[in-house]
Amino acid sequence: MNKTGPSMTRSRPILGLTLLAGALALAGCSTPSLFTRPLAPIAPQWPASAQAVGTAPAGDLLPWRTFFTDPALQSLIALALEYNRDLRVAALNIAQARAQLGLRSADELPSVSAGLGLSRSPNTSGNMATTFTGGLLVSSYELDFFGRVASLKEQALAQYLATEEARRTAQISLIATVAQAWMGLGADARLLRLAEQTLASRQDSLRLVALRLEYGAASDLDLRLAQSLVQAASVALAQTQRQRALDENALVLLVGQPLMPAVLAQLGADVPVTLPALPAGLPSELLTRRADIRQAEQQLAAANANIAAARAAYFPRIALTASAGSASSELGSLFKDGSWSYSLVPQLLLPLFDGGRNDANLASAKVGFDIAVAQYEKAIQGAFREVADALAARSSWERQLLAQTALAQADGERLVLTRLRLENGAASQLDWLDAQRALFASQQGVIAAQLAFLQSQVALYKVLGGGAETP
How far apart are CA 324 and CA 28, in angstroms? Predict the structure, then answer.
């Protein structure tokens, strides 16, 4: 329909816009796709190896600033959250997904353009007639009766939410990795100090054995054994220095900038780091606590919405082109009374033959949904195993640390007693050197067990989903 002339009033474009608004209202009648979360393929309780740790409801975990109370570690984590490049990439992925969601949301609204035009065509007398046009135009807007556009928006929203959950997963992983790296660097510092002290002590022992050999109170074998212990301590010192340098480089990469001297000065403190105990809660709490599971669920919802969009492709598409404006043979008369016009052109497209394209798209969407279900179940099962492993590791490392500490204490007392026996002729030089070697190994074991126990607590904090974000 296209009407112009002096009898046209301003009610004509208003009528056309009213019809357009009615069509848009009908387009909102699409039905969103239905999504039901699959049942979690895990047991209702943790394995027996983790039961002794305690499985009382945990609720929300502590924020990371409350869980990690060491000021130096807090500063490192804050720097990593600001400067780590992997986390920055995750944030940029969110921005990209947000932009895609904005595009899908824009598809639900008509694109309205304003324009001016000029056309020349021969009239009935053979002369060229000029017509000026101007107004608003809605071009090829799809009325979403069957939910195709709404499903695509739902898919984009789920993908955006999945990307946000991926960022949270990257964040808690970064927090835990920085904490474990800092604890490892602290253990390196304590091992380095132990190696230096041991080397100095063994060098003193070597001088004493050499003096005893000079007066006939020791043998060449005793001297060689003492030299062997000195070289073994030198090897341990070099290994520890190398490991400390490598661990410091790894921490610098995580933080995203060089470590400050004031932070490095706090390494190797005699007071060990302590972390609050964490109840494991119930397996079902992982579904809402772990960001990677929520990410897999959003990807599953996106795949479900993709099926709905593929099904809607079988139904007719109703496109609408509408315009409301003015036409005149003179530019000066444009937009004056009597020159207004409107048009409303609906178009129905019914798919008849597409070579099986719609069938293939629907089949692909269904397979994609099945893949998403398998990935969702895999994420849940993987999370269940990670928590069960972390619970078992924390319990066993705690027992090992107690036993290793008792062993080091016993070896220390053995060294003192052996020294007394040696001075009174009741023990050999070999017994004394062997006691030194045993004490050094057990002291190294204590530091390693302390580190493993602390890192197992950090790992449990991570696999349980981490705490709430704090600035």
Answer: 23
